[in-house]
Amino acid sequence: MNKSLKYRLYPTKHQQQLLQEQLQECRWLYNHFLEERKNAWEQERRSISYFQQCNSIPALKKERPSLNKVYSQVLQNVADRLDKAFANFFRRLKKGEEPGYPRFKGFDRYDSLTYKQAGFGWKVHGNCLELFKTGNIEIKLHRPPVGKLKTCTIRRQSGKWYACFCVEYAPEPWPENEKAIGIDVGLESFATLSTNKRIANPRFFKTDEKALVKAQRGLSKQIKGTPERRKAKKIVSRVHERIANRRHNFIHQEARKIVNTFGIICIEKLNIKSMLKNHFLAKSIADVAWNQFAQALARKAEEAGRKFVAIDPRNTSQICSRCGATVEKTLSTRWHDCPICDAHLHRDFNASLNILRLGLQSLGIQPVEAPDFSRVE
Q1: Which end of the chain has less Cβ packing within 10 Å, N or C?
Q2: CB neighbours of residue 9 within 10 Å
Q3: What are the C-alpha distances in Å from 246 to residues 95, 161, 238, 243?
Q4: What pLDDT does residue 121 have?
Q5: 372 has a pLDDT exceeding 50
Q6: Cβ(368)–Cβ(354) below 8 Å
Q7: d(C-alpha 315, C-alpha 32), whole Å
Q8: Active-site residues: which are they?
C-alpha cells in the first residue's frame, strides 16, 4: 500500500534561490515539450512520445546550460507530467467530457519538483533532507516515515516549502469489528450517521470569506510586477491555505473517529461535478468537500482492514427506511413523514438508514430490521 507523507522544509535564502531557479528551468522545459508536441501535430500530424522527449534532454542541456542546475531524473519527470496530461486529455475526449488541452505554464505556475527514486538525488539523514545540487535542507520530521521510501516531491506553497514522500508499506489490519454505519452527507449538517448522530458543518470558507475578500481587494489595487503586489498575493494565498488546512484537519479527524468505531462503513457516491452546476449551492458544496471526506474514509478503512462501501444515493431520501414506501419530498422538506407506517424522522437520518441497508445488501449481509422511529423528534 502506498501513502503520502508531508513535511515542512526550512531552506536557507541561498537554497530557496536554488530551488526557485530549478522550478523555472522545469517550467521552461515543460513549455518547450508542450510546444514541441503541439507543433509536431499541427504541422506534420506527428505524435511525439515520452521516451523521445526524454532522449532529447542531453541535447537540450548543451543548448541551454542552465538545465544542468536540475537533477536529471527531475527533468525526466517533467516529460512524464506532460505525457500524463495528454493521456488525461485523450481519455476525457473519448468519454465525451470537456477535454481541457494541456496549458503552458506561466511565471510562478510550476510549483514542484519530483525525484523519482529514493537514494538517487535525495536522501534523509537525521533532521536533514539532502538534495543533489541544492545541499542539506533542514526538515521537520514530526513523525518518522514508515515503510519504504519511493519518491520525493519538493513543493512550494504560499511562500513555504514542503517535502512530500511517497512510501510503500504493509499496514497491519485492526481487530475485526462488526459494527456498521451509514453516512448521509449534506449542507445543513456535514454528515448524518445512522446512529442519529449529526456532524456539524463547520463552513470554513464562509467563516474566512470576509478576510479573503479584503485580501483580494488589496491585491487588485496593486500594480503588476511591484513588490507590493507580490506581498499582497502572498497574503491571499495564505488565507486560502488556512481555509484548506482547517478543512483538511477536520475531515481527517472525523474520518479517523468513524474508522476507529465501525468495521463496516457505507456512504453515498455522489456526482459532485454535476451538483456544482447548481449556482445557488455550488459555493457551499465546494466548501463542504464531500469527495475529500469519502477519499479519506476509503484510505483509512483500507489501512485498518475495514469494509468500505459507496452506494448509489438515488431515492435514499424518498424511500421510507421503515416500510420501504416512496414518499416524494422536495429539497426544502426536511422531515420524512410516512403515511403508510406513520414514521416521522429527519430526512437525512432516514437517508442514512437507507444507505446502511443498501451497503449491507451489497456486501451480502442481511440488514437488521429498523427500530420503531415513529414520533422521533
Answers
A1: C
A2: 20
A3: 35, 19, 12, 5
A4: 92
A5: no
A6: no
A7: 51
A8: 184, 268, 348
Distance CA 65, CA 28 (A): 13
- Pairing mode, if any, of strands 189-193 and 198-200? antiparallel
**Strand pairing of 264-268 and 307-311?**
parallel
Percent of the chain with pLDDT over 70: 97
Burial (CB < 10 A; 0-12, 13-18, 19+), residue 60, is middle
Residue at grid coordinates 459555493: 283
Q: Give the tens place of pLDDT for each residue, 216-233.
A: 999 999 998 899 999 999
Strands, sheet with 160-168, edge to edge from the N-terminal-most edge strand: 112-115, 148-157, 160-168, 2-10, 135-140, 128-131, 122-125
C-alpha cell at 81: 507530467
Backbone angles phi and psi of 199, in degrees to 5: -105, 120
Residue 363 corresponds to which cell in the numbers above? 456486501
Residue in this structure with the C-alpha cell 468519454, named with its chain if needed: 95
Q: Are 287 and 206 in contact (CB under 8 A)?
A: yes
Instruction: Please report, for residues 9, 10, 193, the alpha-carbon distance to residue 197 in angstroms, rounded to integers and kept in the order given.
Output: 40, 42, 5
Mean pLDDT in the chain?
Answer: 91
Give this prediction's pTM.
Answer: 0.85
> Strands of 198-200's sheet, edge to edge?
198-200, 189-193, 180-185, 264-268, 307-311
- CA of 134: how far to CAs of 13, 18, 27, 117, 362, in Å? 12, 6, 18, 17, 53
Higher pLDDT, 65 or 375: 65
- Cβ atoms of 32 and 60 closer than 8 Å: yes
List alpha helices for the chain, DSSP H. 13-44, 50-55, 57-63, 72-94, 204-220, 227-261, 272-275, 282-288, 290-304, 347-362
- Residue located via cell numbers 445512522: 194
Average pLDDT over residues 6-32: 96
Contacts of 159 (CB under 8 A, 6+ apart): 234, 237, 238
C-alpha cell at 138: 533542514
Angle between helices 227-261 and 290-304 (to 10 degrees): 50
Q: What is the pLDDT of residue 300?
A: 95
